[in-house]
Amino acid sequence: MTIFHSLFFLQSSLLLSLAVFAFILQWHDEINYQTFKSLSLDNPEYPSMDCTSRDSRTTSFPYFKDLKFGYNKSNLKPKICITTTTSDGLEQILQWIYYHKFIGVTNFFLFVEGNASIPHVSKVLQSIQNVKLVHRTKELEEEQAKSRMWNETWMSRYLYKPCNYELFVKQYLNMEMAIDMAREARMDWIIHIDTDELIHPAGTNEYSVTQLLSAVHESVDTVIFPNYESCVERDDIQEPFTEVSLFKKSFHHLDNETYFRNYNKSFRGNKNYFMTYANGKSAARVQPYLRPNGAHRWYNYITIPNETQFTEAAILHYTYAKFSYLTSRRERCGCKPTINHLKKCFFLDFDRDAFIIASSATEEEMLNWYHEHVVWMNKDLNQKLIKEGILTRIYAPMVIMQGLKDTGVYASLI
């Protein structure tokens, strides 16, 4: 790595260190900031920096010029909330919450089950300011049984099916309730994402989703974040948010010539450009008659929303970023590992293929499949696709999360 690269990264890390420190001061009621220490700039490089080009490095931190983090959190405008349905563990959810607090999200509505609903996990999450938990109880299911969703014709093909279809229906019902919660909390915008996804507010000089949405024209009702997909470069990732920096860009952020010129190389033997979904996620203004339109969009019962799309900002999707995500799939769904049966369980080809491998292969065979379909180990190919603009390096989330981790916020909560 050249001296230019090192100096640029150190400068960028220092800017984010100062930003993290400002965040610590703003949220001092939740963080024992005496444990704070700024990002260690003499530590080893962040993962995969050795294969980052000058061009990709320059575009990794275009958002930290003129950083301003002096706002009062109680006066943040617009007020933005995130809702999610999750069964993830405490550590991942904490990283996810505090990262989004850092970029300006004010409220969180978490519909929890599985690991996320364990008493000691719930206790920690409920102790965080403006985080509201909803457990999947019999009372909740009885309330959601009254939803008008059950009479929506277009939803009929998703109902009464297992695995991904069941999750999709839960997400829809939870999003309905989250709209009411957002309205009660006087939120301006609502966003639905999963806890393996991060908002990347590119195109703002404050790296702020608050600034991003405040710039949306008042005539716009909903706005789409195209999604970028993680490209892991090792098979032993333990903390995707702090270990993954390489992403495949949405084709919505590419010109057609670049996309088709690199079509075969970027698919890497998979059936689609992305392993999983490709239609992004969206934010909606909290307005009368707002409703979910599936898990990725919002709509309105009365009017057709005016929708636009961000040209730089994105959702970072850390999909299959850990080998254990593959090996655990067979435990998260009771479907038979046959193609015909799995069509009733999973929307996507890749999820079906992954489930079959996880259900029928040996550990060695699973690892080989993971290398072939998920891990980007060819540094020359990666570098070429970075130069072409198909892949990109994004360091901001890992720097922010490492800075927050160094403050001791997670340890003090746990």
Please render the helix and strand layout as text.
Layout: H1 3-26, H2 54-60, E1 80-86, H3 90-102, E2 107-112, H4 119-126, E3 131-135, H5 138-144, H6 164-184, E4 189-192, E5 197-200, H7 209-214, E6 222-225, E7 227-230, H8 240-243, E8 246-248, H9 256-261, H10 263-267, E9 281-285, E10 290-292, E11 298-300, E12 307-309, E13 314-317, H11 323-327, H12 329-332, H13 339-342, H14 349-360, H15 363-373, H16 379-388, E14 391-393, H17 396-406, H18 409-413
Parallel strand pairs: 1-2, 1-4, 2-3, 6-12, 7-13
Antiparallel strand pairs: 4-9, 5-13, 6-9, 7-8, 8-14, 10-11
Write structural notes for this entry.
Pfam families: Glyco_transf_92 (PF01697). InterPro entries: Glyco_transf_92, KOBITO1-like. GO terms for molecular function: glycosyltransferase activity. Belongs to the glycosyltransferase 92 family. Its main location: membrane. This protein has a seven-stranded mixed beta sheet, with helices on both faces. A hairpin with a 5-residue loop joins strand 10 and strand 11 (298-300). Mean pLDDT is 86; it is low at 1-8 and 21-72. It has 414 residues and is an alpha/beta fold. The chain has helices spanning 3-26, 54-60, 90-102, 119-126, 138-144, 164-184, 209-214, 240-243, 256-261, 263-267, 323-327, 329-332, 339-342, 349-360, 363-373, 379-388, 396-406, 409-413, and strands spanning 80-86, 107-112, 131-135, 189-192, 197-200, 222-225, 227-230, 246-248, 281-285, 290-292, 298-300, 307-309, 314-317, 391-393. The chain is built from 18 helices and 14 strands. It has one domain (3-320, 374-413). It is 39% helix and 14% strand. Helix 1 crosses helix 17 (396-406) and helix 3 (90-102) crosses helix 17 (396-406).
